[in-house]
Design goal:
Blueprint: H1 3-12, H2 16-38, H3 41-58, H4 69-87, H5 96-102, H6 105-115, H7 121-127, H8 131-143, H9 147-154, H10 158-176
Helix pairs in contact: 1-2, 2-3, 2-4, 3-4, 6-8, 7-10, 8-10, 9-10
């Protein structure tokens, strides 16, 4: 059993030291994920802080039979970050020149995939997917692109992108289990 899974069980029983241990193990990784989505470090840190409050409150709902604690926490952070973007109330608006300097978010997706260590199971499983499925999944889950944004970027219909992601995620689950 993963350290995070056993720590999460302790958190579910009200063990604050276990929550601190999970934070020490996972916070940097979760901030990096959130930052790829919200594009600003301070907002990413806020997202992770709010996520850990949710993790503390809902730890009893975590079911190790349905997946790993790391994946559960990543999902919470991703949803918080995407909600922050959708809400937009804490985001600054930039003109076209400033947007150009922020970089290409699609390139961030490609870089995130390329940066996965070859020894990582996720990398091995992603490599087994067709390139457009892999790219769609990375763009959606790492960078936070909507289905419409992915479709526009890849020049594919939205329904096709949704299918690529749905089938790709199913293949990843099977490969990782």
């Amino acid at each position: 059993m993963d350290d995070c899974d056993s720590l999460m069980r302790r958190v579910a029983n009200g063990d604050r030291s276990a929550l601190a241990a999970i934070f020490d193990l996972e916070a940097a990784r979760l901030v990096a994920i959130a930052k790829r989505i919200v594009r600003r470090r301070e907002l990413a840190e806020d997202v992770v802080q709010e996520a850990f409050v949710t993790i503390w409150r809902k730890a009893a709902l975590f079911d190790h039979e349905r997946g790993a604690a790391r994946a559960w926490m990543t999902t919470i952070v991703r949803h918080r970050a995407l909600n922050l973007i959708r809400d937009g109330s804490r985001l600054d608006f930039h003109d076209a020149d400033q947007l150009a300097t922020l970089g290409d978010r699609a390139a961030d997706a490609d870089a995130a995939y390329a940066d996965l260590p070859e020894t990582e199971d996720l990398k091995r499983c992603l490599d087994q997917l067709e390139p457009e499925r892999r790219r769609s999944i990375v763009m959606a889950y790492v960078v936070g692109f909507s289905h419409g944004e992915i479709a526009a970027h890849l020049g594919a219909p939205v329904g096709t992108v949704k299918a690529w992601i749905r089938r790709g995620v199913a293949s990843l689950k099977e490969c990782l289990s």
